[in-house]
Structures are given as structure tokens and as C-alpha cells.
Amino acid sequence: MLFNSLTFVVFFVVVVTAYWSMRSWNARKNFLVVASYIFYGAWNPPFAALLFSTTAMDFWLGRRIAKAKGRHSRRGWLVGSVCMNLSMLGFFKYGNFLLQNFQWLLARLGIIYQPPHLDILLPVGISFYTFHSLSYTLDIYRGVLKPTKSLRDFILAVSFFPQLVAGPIVRAGDFLPQLVRPPALRAGQFLWGLLLMTLGLFEKIVLADTMLSGSADRIFGYAGPLVALDSWLGVMAFAGQIFFDFAGYSTCAIGAALCLGFHLKDNFRFPYAAIGFSDFWRRWHISLSTFLRDYLYIPLGGNQVRPVRAATNLVIVMFLGGLWHGAAWTFVVWGLLHGSYLVVERVIRVLFENRARTNNLATRLLGGFATYAAVCIAWVFFRASDFTIAARMLGGMFGGHPHGDAILTTREMLQIALVTAGMILVHWSLRDSNIETAVMRLPRWIVTAVWAFMACAIILTQGNSNAFIYFQF
Amino acid sequence: MPSSTSNFKRKLRLPRLFFSTPPEIERVHGGPPLEYERPIPEVPSRGIATVVVLMVIAATCAWEFYCRSIGYGPTLNDGEDLWTSARRRVKPDSIVVIGDSRGWFDLDLDELQKGLGKRPVQLAMGGGCAYPVLADLANDENFHGTIICSVVPRLFVAPPGTPPMERAEKAVRRSHTQTPAQRVSQYLAMPLEEHVAFLKQEELTLDDLVKRLPIPNRPYALVSPRIPPYFGTLDRERRARMIEGCAQPGKLQTTIQQIWLPLFTPPPPPTYIPKEEFAKRMGQAIEQRFHDVAAAVQKLRSRGGKIVFVRLPHSGGLKALEDRETPRAAVWDRVIKDTAAPGIYYEDFPELAGFNCPEWSHLSAGDSVEFSKRLIPHLRAALQM
User: Fold this and answer.
1) Omega of the bond prior to B268 within 30 degrees of 0, cis?
2) Is the predicted pLDDT of residue A214 greater than 50, yes or no?
3) What is the 3-state secondary structure (H, E, C) of A39-93?
4) Of A69, A435, B54, B354, which residue is least crowded by CB atoms under 10 Å?
5) A325 counts as catalytic
């Protein structure tokens, strides 16, 4: 069920009304489990069984890890959980990719092998709910979480519908404590949740889909060479589109959860105002970057190892982060590019540490601009469906096609320029703050007008919108 | 002594986790305490929300009144989900109309039902290519009914990757992959679209309104041709009817006539492919289409299915353009020859040739009924009914 669909509007109204009219906390939680499975099953009902089996297995494995006496035994159960989750992810998401690469490798060795084509349908949100579930056993193993006694609560933690299919990746340790006591219905919190949902839908439907996606699709789908201006504008359009699409979903999820009395952490913190790539990853898809940091980077040694090893760890983490996004080498290159950006940034920081001139406004702005440009270059690989397209785009961006085509209309160019400028302006003005503070500072009439404007613009789009990009991950 | 209920719980261990109330110590989860609570801005939210709701209602009503005042009326949008709901109604022996918007506007389902004995299912689509739907029906092992296929040559031979093909492919794909949520959304949308005039998905969306801003373009910008404004209504069976405002001479009629011309004019070849190469590829794609259509018809016939191709009326400047760019011999005659299927070309029959299309491409609602009535004997003959 898409947030930007009539079905969801009706579903949400029914769920919120029924949820708050129930007096028993247990009844409410049972109801949320049922609602979450309906939400998920509305895509493809059989996959709800897969979701349940993953959850039930991790619930059981979590108890085994907690009960295990020796270190080896604990580790064994954890390995079981990791293998179970990753093999599920591997089969559904990477099955055909692995087979194709295996075939390619054999062909290089002179062995002709024609693998059977696996007609695998990717369960929506499998990358997200696998991580929700996996965080539980990992945290029990790390000793930061005790296993819950209630399967129902754990099912709800994994399948809670606002964050189920496209994040944020909410760790069981962050969600389970919220299931202990029933939240109280507070008008301010509920209405703030609705405002966040309006903002999220506005970002997705109006800014991503209406203002930017058409231009990005046209540029990346154009089969001929493009001039630099159009190439850059196409990439900037995609940079804005993916931010508004994904941040819009996260904002909706946070808002929907608030309406039900649950608190989810921010998943984005004005990322295009980042100065440097470590700053970018503290602001972009925070739930994934912290997941990778806590469960992969730190166990690999983190910063507490020699610089070369730490740099290697960074690249490994970003390689896997890239692969998490999709079963294609273009995503791997995207991840590796970000890994190398992080390594280069570390070197630069060592070289220029404690230099006074690195802290002035001009340097910060230059750093922000360079970060944005480098992130845009990496987005080329994320968006391009193959390396031919990526090479053509990069060729255009760096002046390789001075006599290429100029296909964007003036209106499209203005839309990209205005939305991108507005986005960067907002990110820079709020980079050390948050939206709640901004709303507190604004005059009431502006808050009212902006909320009404966003709602009207959403109605005007008539639901003529696409699925969220991150659903495919 | 345990009660019967507790015995029941003890036997079924898994449900116990759901139904029993664990002691307090068990109910408190491990892990960090609830350390994160989102900040909630302290603003008079009830007052703000009330004003927002009032403003949104007022703006929506004002927009609806304005749209009605300039001639728009409520009608269903022809999305993939509406098409899918029609596709779902196809039974093994159904009569199905496929093709383009002429099949949509010009064929009256009531008259066809009277004349052919069954109510046809309308699967034609505005600006769509017939082939993906034909192939879908041919590949449907259960289907052995009758197809009435409207042919507009330019749309019929539209190569892969072009909007007519993509539109049809998208609809066919949706019919195979529609999720329960999409189906419910369609059921919820229909009553709204039947009562609200501004719900026009290819005309009055924010995207469409922004596209209409009069901003001059660079010389080589790729500008999509304009799509005709609202001139017909669509019901739940996907029967399209031209509105009176278009059937009568006036600005709307003239505007649409002038929109058809660039829409039916072949676009220039892309700059990055030599002209000869482009022409060669187009020729190959068209040949491939003839071959594929013949194969699909053969497959359909092998199961006892029938097909009749129909060329429906067109007039004025559009007729001149179509006849020049896609002459009868190039597409129509070839389709009939390759498939060995019956065909009804309206100009071949005086009783069908005398109709005038007000906006050059479709019949008015009244004429479509009369045309369908006159078409029945020809369809019966062609289908040997």
C-alpha cells in the first residue's frame, strides 16, 4: 500500500480511529499487528508469510542467543540468524545477479554455462524489514538488549506499518521499549504527525514526482549525447528527486507513527548542507549509516586500527552499502565512490587539521559545494541502469559532448533550478537546527499558509504519482 | 486446579505468547530505556489545523467551481486500473473491442450487444497501440472469443518504446500485476471521479498546469506534442462519449483539430542516428509488427477465436494527413493480407462513409450509436455470425 494512494488514506483513517478508540493496550497492539500485515499483504499477500517466518525465526534465535552459556554457542546462534536473514535477502534480491555473474566468470574461463532464469519476485521492503529483524539478534548478542518475551511485540516491532517497507530502519531496541506502556493521545502530537505526513507527501508527490522526476527520466533515458548544462541539470534533478522521494517517505512514516503515539528517529538531517562526506552520511539515510557503523564498521575495527586498515574498512562498508541498495554493479560503484570519498576526506582532514583558514565561511561554503558536486557525480551510477548510460552522462557533464543535444525545455530547467536552489537554501539555513525549531520560530500564519498550500498542491496532483524509489530496495 | 482455558493455553504454546498477560517483570523489555522522544513544537495546533482544513476545503471548492465554469465535467480517468477492471471482465467467449480511441468513441456497446447478442468488453484505449492487447489475448489460453480491432495506422505500427506502445504495455502489465491495494484504490477513486470535475489526470493535475505556462523554449528542446483537452466522458464500462461542447462547432472543436495535426505528424529523427539508419530501423520495426500481429492472429484462431479489423471514420485535415502519411496500401491492406482476417474499411461502404467527425478524429455520441447500428450487418458478415 502506497502512502500516496487513496487506499492508504482510508486505511489510515480506519486504523487511527479504531486504535485510539480501543481501551486495552494489548488489544491496540494486536490490532496494529493485524493492520501492519494487511498493509504489507495489500501488495502481495503470500509475502506476508515470508515476513512472519523471518520475524518468528529471529524471535526464537534471539532467545537462544540470550540463553546460550558459552561464547561459541552465542556466536553460533547469531551466525544462524545472520545467515538466515542474509540468505533470504540473497535469494530474493541477489539470486539472478549472482547467477549472471557466475555465468560471466565461467565464460571467462572458457566454460559455457547457461543458468536457469529464476523468475523471482522481489518482496517489497525486504532489505528494510530484514535489517529491522536482524538488529534484534545483533543487539542481544552485543548485550545491549534483552530478548522480549512477547512474540506479538516483536512482530509489531518488525512489521509496524509506517516503517515497514522503506524505512527508517528502526531497531528493535528503539521500538520495543515503546511497547511497554500505552501512549496517551495528545492533540499536539497527533496534529504534528499529520503535518509531517503532509510535508512528506508534498516532498514526494509535488517536489520529487511533479517537479523533478520527468526531467531526470528524460535526461537519463535519452539515447544520444547531451551538452554539459543538460547533463548536470538532469543529475541535479535526480539528486533532488531521490532526496524528496526518500526523505518524503521517512517523514510520512515518522508522522504516521506519531499519530499512533510512537516516536521514530530522523532519517535525514538536511544532507545537501553537508560539509564533507562523513558529515553527509551523518545526515543521509541515518538509520542505514548508523546500522552499518554499529554492526559492521565498528566490529571490523572502526577507527581503532591502523589508518590503512580503517580506510579499507570504510571502503568495505560502503561497498556493502552500495550492494544493499540494489543487485547491480552500478550500485557497487556508487558505494565504492562514496567509500573512496570518505578515505580522501580523511586524508585531507589530516593534512589540513588545525589550519585556521579551513574554518571560515568561504571554505565551509566551498566544502559544501564540493560535497554536493561529488555526491551528484556518484548519483550518476545510482540512477543509470548500466555503465554505458553512466559513461554517457559523465561524458556530458565534463564537456565531452560540446555539440551534444540540448533537450530540456526552459520550464524544466527553471523547475530544476528553483527546486534545487530552494532545497539547498533550506538545508543550509537549517543545517544545525531541526524542523520543529523552525516551526516554533515562524509566525503562526506562515505555518498555517504553508500547511494549507502543501495540502492543496497534493490534492491538485490527484494522486498522479509513482511508487517510492526506495521500494525497489 | 487449572481451568479449561488455561489447559487450552498450555497445550498451544505459541498462541500463549499472544493471549496471556505476562507478569510485569516479563513485560518490561530489555535494552536501553525510552531515551528518544521526538520534540513536538509548542504551537496552537488545533487552531492552525482548523484554519488549514477550512482553507483547503474553500480552495478545493473554488477550483471545482472554476473548472466546471470553463466546461469541465466529471468523468472517469482512463488509467491502467480502470483498464484492468475491464480486462478482468473478459470471459473465454467474450466479444472484445481493442485498439485506439476511435474504437472507444465510435462503437456503442448497447448497439453492439443488440446486434451481436453479447455485450462487448471495451479494451480500446486513447492513444494506445492495439498490438500489446492483441498479443495478451492471443496468449491467454482461456480466451477463444471475438476481437473487434480498430486500426489507426500510425498507432497500430507504433514501434516499441513509443508512447502508444508504452501506454498499452503498461495497462497489460498492470492487469497481470495489479495488487489488492491498487484494486481498492480504483474502487475508491471511481465514485470521486464521477462527481468531481477537476479530477482529470492528463489535464488538470499540477504537472499539466505547470506545463501550460507560456515560457519560450530553446530552439532544439524536445517538447512533447500537446494532448487534446477534455472532450469526452468515460463510464465504468470504458464507453467514451464526446461531450456536446465538442460536437458543436466552436473553439474547443477547432482547438482539438489543430492539436491532432502535430500529434499525427511523424517527429523528426533523433540527431544522434543517421537518417538512413533511423528509417531502416523504423522499417524493420514495422515489418516486425506485421509479423507479430499475424502470429498473434494465428494463435488466436488456432483456439477457435475470431478477429475483425475495422477502420473507423476520420475527417477533414486529419484524414488528409493520415491518408498521406500512412496510405491504405501501406498498413491496412498489409494487415488484412498478412493475417487473412476480415476487415471493414468504412469508406468502402456508403452507409458508413457519410459520417463526419466534429473534431476530425471521432464521432459524436449521437452519431456513434447510428454508426454502430449500421456497422452491425458488416460485423456479422465478417464474423460469419
Assistant:
1) no
2) yes
3) HHHCCCHHHHHHHHHHHHHHHHHHHHHHHCCCHHHHHHHHHHHHHHHHHHHHHHH
4) A69
5) yes
Amino acid identity of residue A306, one-letter, is R
Q: Any idea which of A355-359, B15-19, B213-217 has the lowest mean pLDDT?
A: B15-19
Alpha carbon B14 to its chain centroid, in Å, reads: 49
Taking CB atoms and an 8 Å cutoff, what residues of chain B touch A185?
none
> Is residue B32 predicted with pLDDT exceeding 60?
no
Contacting residues of B for A139, CB less than 8 Å apart? 31
pLDDT digits (tens, 9 = 90+) for B191-225: 999 999 999 888 888 888 888 888 888 888 888 88
The band of B270, judged by pLDDT with boundaries at 50, 70 and 90, is confident
| C-alpha span between A55 and A68 (Å, rounded) | 20
**Antiparallel, parallel or unpaired: β B146-150 and B95-98:** parallel
Q: How far is CA A130 from the centre of its chain?
A: 14
A130 and A215 Cβ atoms separated by less than 8 Å: no
State how far the Cα of A138 lies from the Cα of B43, in Å rounded to an integer.
Answer: 40
Mean pLDDT of chain A: 89
Strands B95-98 and B306-311 come out as unpaired
Q: Name the residue among B48, B181, B201 with its Cβ closest to that of A448.
A: B48
B343-345 β-sheet, strand order: B121-122, B95-98, B146-150, B306-311, B343-345
Reference B227, options B249, B211, B239; nearest CA is: B211
User: Sign of the C-alpha dihedral, residues B339, B342, B347, B348?
Assistant: positive
**Does pTM surpass 0.90?**
no
Cα(A164)–Cα(A249) distance, integer angstroms = 11
Residue whose entry in the numeric block shows the C-alpha cell 500512412: B326
CB B62 within 8 A of CB A460: no
Amino acid at A15: V
The DSSP line for B301-359 is HHTT-EEEEEE----HHHHHHHHHHS-TTTTHHHHHHHHT--EEEGGGSHHHHT---TT
**CB-CB under 8 Å, B271 with A463:** no
Q: Which three cell numbers, joined as nine digits, stand for A136? A: 534484534
Distances (CA, A) of B286 to B271, B281, B334: 21, 9, 11
What is the amino acid identity at position A84? M
Predicted confidence band of residue B280 (pLDDT cuts 50, 70, 90): very high
Residue of B nearest to A139 (CA): B31
Distances (CA, A) of A223 to A275, A394, A407: 34, 14, 11
The two counts, helices (H) then strands (E), for chain B are 19, 7
Q: How far is A130 from chain B (nearest CA, A)?
A: 20
Please tell me which residue in A132, A263, A285, A325 is annotated as part of the active site: A325
Question: Does B221 contact A409 at a Cβ distance shorter than 8 Å?
Answer: yes
CB distance B210–A192 less than 8 Å?
no
Place of cell 537462544: A64
Q: Which three cell numbers stand for residue B182?
A: 491498487
Spatial distance between the Cα atoms of A294 and A276, rounded to a whole number of angstroms = 21
Please check whether residue A35 is in contact with residue A15, taking contact to mean a CB–CB distance below 8 angstroms: yes
Look at residue A356 and tell me whether its pLDDT is greater than 70: no
Q: Is B315 exposed, middle or buried (0-12, 13-18, 19+ CB in 10 A)?
A: middle
Chain Cα centroid distance, residue A427: 18
Which pLDDT band holds residue A19 (cuts at 50, 70, 90)?
very high
Query: Which three three-digit cell numbers place residue B360?
Result: 476530425
Instruction: Enumerate the residues of chain A whose CB falls inside 8 A of the CB of residue B40.
Output: 186, 188-189, 192, 436
d(CA B348, CA B27): 82
Residues 6+ apart with CB under 8 A from B303: B141, B143, B144
Sort residue A86 into left (φ over 0), alpha (ψ -120 to 50) or beta.
alpha
Q: Would you say the ipTM is above 0.90? A: no
* Residue corresponding to grid cell 522521494: A245
